[in-house]
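Bug: token stream looks shifted between consecutive jobs. Job 1:
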Amino acid sequence: MNIKSIQDILPLVERPSRYLGTEINCIKKDESKVKLSIALVFPDLYEIGTSHLGLTILYHILNSHEEIAAERVFVPGTDMEAYLRSSNIPLMSLESKKPLKAFDIIGFSLLYELNYTNVLNILDLAKIPFFSSQRDSSHPLIIAGGPCACNPEPVADFFDAIVIGDGENVIMEMSRSWLKWKENYRGEKEVLYKIWSDIQGVYIPAFFEPKFDGSGFQVLLPRFSKYQKIKKAIVNDLDKASFPDAPIIPYGKPIHDRLRLEVSRGCTRGCRFCQAGMIYRPVRERSVETILTLLNKSITATGYEDISLLSLSIGDYICINPLMEQLMTLCEPRNIAVSFPSLRAGTLTPELMQHIKRVRKTGFTIAPEAGSQRLRDVINKNIRKKDIIDTVKNAYDLGWLVIKLYFMVGLPTETSEDLRSIVNLVKELRRINTGKGRRKNKINVSFTTFIPKSHTPFQWASQISLAESKDRIGWLQNNLKMSGINFKWQNPEVSLLEGLWARGDRQLSHLLVAAHKKGCKLDGWSDNFNYGLWQEAVYDEGVDIGFYTGRSRNTDEPLPWDHIDVGIEKKYLIEEWEKATRGELTPDCRTGDCNACGVCDFDVIEPKVFEMPAEKSAFDIGSGLLTSDNIKPVIKGALLKTLKVAFSKIDQAKYFGHLELVNILLRAIRRAGIPVKFSEGFHPKPKISFEDTLPIGLESLKEYFYLVVPENFKPQSIIESLNKHLPEGLSVHDCQIVSTKKVHNNEKKYNYIVTIKEEFFDNKRLEIFLQSPGFIVSRIDRKGRLKKIDLKYMVLDIELLRPDKLQMILRSESGKTARPLEVIKEIFKLTDEKAKKARFIKI
């Protein structure tokens, strides 16, 4: 096929809206005014990357500078990648469709070790050499950041610079330095390296030379005496840090399809396995006032119906209850739900649950991590069995039916008795509140293998073998086979590789290249993960996985990440490691004494929390802040009417599926300030319905939806107000009051114009169809059943208007339809690709 651009590929791939770059709140700049272009790359699929808050923050900060343009890049789906490669089209950004290779800087977010092969795949699709030593001044500078950067060594050879710690301030310092360097030094990379190395939090891998001793331990030799340790960058006052108040609203179904607000950063609980709890210290909170201000602006700019409050331990936020009270003052009348990603047992109080359920009961996860109290003390979890039981009981008593529990296997000192304790705890929780006459509750229990991570007290621990991991998870699965329990687990092979990369060194860079060449990519997705290919690569490169994962490390041996200073003193980590072996607890320093971990200097860097005021009224900050006037609630008991709204879906909008279209319109309605009646019950839904569903790839000049609004709402305002909030290709044309929703006829007729590209419709095949008494085709429905349909019955009329264009009228009945693409493909014997490239317009 003749494919010249991504527009030729879009009709051929699954979920084409991933690649449009026309989302609400995305930023497109005039290239003539831009001096620095930065591609922000998340090395995973669109649905994952658009849910990453860090990328959203950097996008907001960089685009706030008029001379800087930041654009987004994600891993293409396997179908899109195949077309890009076969057509020799380089990977490009979403916003401007500029090839990745044409950017000045490419910044990768390193969130997960199993995404490393995706980093190489993206560079390969962009036609950029992998290793920084192979790139010259004609190539973009490749940088990275994120939690995986706290041990950057396995991927250090691929990057020019790596950001350690918080990126908000560093990325702007690096950008401003680049602008000066470009103007004054004419592209000498070594000069920029030296400039960047003076910025706190910036690691230049080329300034360190790896050496390996007789035991295979890596030691880095710094090239410059003043550049031996890289101290992490830190935002010391989160309350004043920049945060996006008009985030992009992704298309499709991202994994976190809601507004996300970071309430606090850092954690003081001190769980000894938790890397995030160590590297993001100290705890820094945003004030209630700041959170509410951000919420108000963000809801106005997005129209989201769900909010998620983000923190490593949201229940520890000092003012969580007054915050929730204020949030629900705004959210409840507007049917906006509030959820937490996870909660610590003991912090989910009945009062907090009552707030959450005021709109609808959003789910929550509790992470006991271990089943026995002994092992919870070893890992310093600091929760008791009673906390877990009380939390689950409170949830059930307040109407929740599903609870998620998270455990690990292979924790240091774990015994078979600890595994039995998990089973006993889950069984005890299962028995709660399942009495006669009540619906039985469900418990989703998830397991993963413990992975020792850098900069934690357990960084010296060993990871259990693959066989041990499979045995323990298999035993737990067999012993938790019972009604009401849904058992999930992470593939132990994935955990083993994650452990390899989490504590690896620079010797692994060639393993990554070898794995990529064998076809490893999207390793975090079970349907793409191929452990056999990884085994081949490990064998070919002579890598001993056990050297990195299977042995306990001595506290005096050099670690690959010793040059990375995240603020935690090694002395403190050793003390915590020794206390773990004795089962001793370390208290939370948020409200108690300092544990002397080394992070705080108590001058610039220290915990920042907002204490509860003596009087509750101090949080009553007034209705001026809690407005969101454009998202108006419908007063209960108000007189109502039904509106019939006509709209078109053309050009790029044809790539929206029906459910996607519904979400786009609902959020546009919220942003436009159109008050819509909601249903009653536990999960209120807006009273909106559509006459027809349009499949992906089909354009339409006129479609209809109905919505119920207050009697005093003026329908004339809908056209102008709604069109301001719709993406390219969607447009409202008319709005009329109707006495009731239109009654659907059992039989409908639809008129289509079809134009084929690079082909002509075969008139002989059309004649064969017209003269045939019947034209039976078979298809497999969504349930996997074989169905037969007679196209002669479904096609009421079909006529060639010219060799590449036809018009047809199709019948549609309840339970019996024929899609235009299916019709032309069968009648004219077209391949899938040729049929999909045709343009279908419903007129």
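Job 2, same session, no restart:
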Amino acid sequence: MHPLRFTLPFLAAGSLAFAAKTPIPIAEIQRNTPVDFDGEVRPFLSDNCLSCHCQSTTKGGLNLETPELMLKGGDSGPAIAPQKGSESLILQAAAHLDDDLTMPPRDNKSKAKNLTPEQLGLLKLWIDQGAKASPKRERVVQWQPLAGSLGAIFAVAVTRDGQFAACARENRVFIYHVPSGRLVFNEAAHQDQVNALAFSPDGSLLASAGYREVKLWRLAKEEGKPAPAISGPADNAKSGQVDGKILTALNTEGKQIARVDHGEPITAFAVRGDGQRIVTAGGNAAKLWSPDGKMVAELRGNRFAREFVEERDRALQVELGNVAYRKEAVETAQKALQAGQERAKKSAAALAPKEQEIVAKQKAVDTAKAAKTAADQALAGAEVEVKKAETALQDAAAKAAQQAATAAEAIKGTTTVDANKLAADAATGLQAAAKARTERDQREIQRKQAADKVEPAGKQLTTAEDALKNAQTAKETVETEIALGKTEEQKDTASVAEAKAAVETAEAARKKAEEAVQSARQAATAAEKAVRAVAFSPDGSTVVTAGDDQLIHTWSAENGAAFDVLKGHQAAITALAFAPNGELVSTAGDGATLSWNIAPGWKLERTIGTGNAGSPLTDRVNALAFTPDGKQLATGSGEPSRGGELKLWNATTGQFVRDFPKVHSDSVLSLEFSPDGKFLASGAADKMARVTELATGKIVRGFEGHTHHVLGVSWSADGRTLATAGADGMVKIWDFTTGDRKKNIEGYDKEVTAVRFVGATANLLTSSGDNKVRLVGLDGKEVRVFPEVADFMESAAVSADGKLVVAGGEDSVLRIWNADGSKLAAFMPVGK
């Protein structure tokens, strides 16, 4: 047995009772070349030892990841003794050379296996050779083709305006233009599978994450280029006849297709090549028609202006919620103040009776003290009298005895004294002694009577003193309550004042938000200018309108959904047409003619990280989040079981900003910034959700409660509530201001893979492994289950207005729904 007796640091608690008792043979390895720790020893230690003895889990204080850490050892000393393999604790434990010294434990949760004789021999030889670390060398990643089975969608994202939705399949990124239903980007973005996607707040950037790298893709919007002038509505004459506000649409043969009433004098119109859509312009709007003369949609105003109104309105809802929250805080503070004042009033009212009671109790004590003193004095006097009587008795008895003796001698004739007289004297002496005895007995009775009064008097005094003490304590308690009440009243008064000030601030913010909404609505109304020109794209998917607002608007030719707004002209636009190459050509009143490529395109702007061992990013990047202003990008990664990594980057330049060390002890899996951008919430494989303050880098909240990986985090629009989703099949709701858990939302049969607050509402979007994408309230009640989900769902996202829900999972289908649960699109993998 090794002289260093220890509680085996290699084993979990309670595992010794199951340790194997039969030693494992150690193979004799015959070789002269040095054993490479990284290439030969660390792999089998990693398989069977490091799950319990690594940076994040150092059972027994022991970390076996490097030779230096082995030599440092754990609670019981070094695990290795260089050049002394047989004496090293790690070898004795792994070879089961001692019944109390065995590793790994039997039936361990990590499913670690005993080392083979060859592995033990290699471990011994490495130690005998000096237990040297491997030479430092750059690890070259040898990439292999991705398996076709990796087609599952592990990440989805949607722009705030719902224009674009993205998903990742294998190592490819797919971007879809939602209103048109078109795939606009499909590229092998990374060597490894893509685990995270995030759009910037303005929708102009998409970040994708792979192994040790992040790529930023930019939405390329081409500005209008000078082009030859075009004639405006001349071509329309071939496809229709206008009579004021009435259009008679004709086909190529000149036959009537439809007759529509625009409602205002028509200034321009166009008929799609297939005759299935007609667009008319007049006044401040264009209208899209079907061949039966029914209006499909009204194409009015500026999409961005409308969306700004909606955004301001959501901000107003948040401010209204803040006002209600602050008013409730005032009520709570006022109730606390009122309750404190009532307590203080009762305490003050109770003080006078307590003081009166003390006076009465003090009087009783004084009386009891006087009685006790009198009893003590009486007893003392009685005891003096008893002593006097006893002395007199003894003197009388001695005298009587002497007289009796003298008389007896006289009777015997030994003296000449008169015997009779002596006898008489003796008799008198005996009488005197008897009298003295009687006196002594009476005095003893009096002493006993006095003593009997002392104890009751003492008890009465003790009782009176106790009563006085209790009364004094009661008074002190009341006085303490009064003092505390005054302090509490001051605090509550300050709280009321603070709460009222917060209400005023919230009311001011609400008023400002209302003004912003009103201003945005006025701007949106003002943006509605006369429409002068319309045209259909050659492929018939897009309808284009333009006019006095000097802007070009693109819309879906099927349903009228707004696409984009193009800015470039300095005067009212009078004509639109498509060139043979598919580009849009526009002419304005100032004679300027521009050509446009209206097809959205995405291009790689920059890469963060190198994807190799020298990358500043560790392992797979599992989570991405842009700050609310879009200026910075957070990445979450980390080497599994060893530590989590949180870093912040400049989204414009790609430059490193800062890291947040030791926030998590395992891989970071989810990220989201608070609405005000001051805090970053993160969830990780260490089962924790934490909130870090960006300005200081300090962890300001830690939310513990999940029993498995935290796969999702999301802030409410007011920033006061945080939701977390876990692989334990649970969604937890937390109060960020207090750190308290508010609610557990259960009912999930498998992992909850994503959680998102929906707009400014109190509803949550969740995806889970039980083949469901759901809308749930903060009370845990199910609002809606989105239809046609067939497999394990890995990710979900929702547009800022809550009108668009996107989700993907194991079946590789990107599903998109409207807020009401109706299916909008289902994008299959390319080629399927």
